[in-house]
Amino acid sequence: MARVAVVTLGCPKNAVDSEALGGVLAAGGHEVTEAVEASEVVVVNTCGFIDAARRETVEEVLAVA
After folding, report:
1. Integer Cα distance of 54 and 41 in angstroms
2. In the beta sheet, which residues pair with residue 41?
3. DSSP the chain
4. Sign of the alpha-carbon dihedral angle for 14, 20, 25, 31
5. pTM score > 0.90 for this model?
6. I need a surface site. Which of 1, 15, 17, 33 has the fewest CB within 10 A?
7. Are 42 and 64 contacting, i.e. CB atoms less than 8 angstroms apart?
């Protein structure tokens, strides 16, 4: 299975959702990591409704890409 990093941006609700997603991924046999550089898949969980969160997301994705 894949090594997956879950990156959480935006509000605290996203952190709860990311934690739940990480649990589902781990239960499915994936290795969940915080190390983006060491992962095969990166899931970015963010808010699309708040301008600041959208900007933060674009900046974070561009920084890693």
Report:
1. 21
2. 4
3. --EEEEEE-SSHHHHHHHHHHHHHHHHTTPEEES-GGG-SEEEEE--SSSHHHHHHHHHHHHHH-
4. positive
5. no
6. 1
7. yes
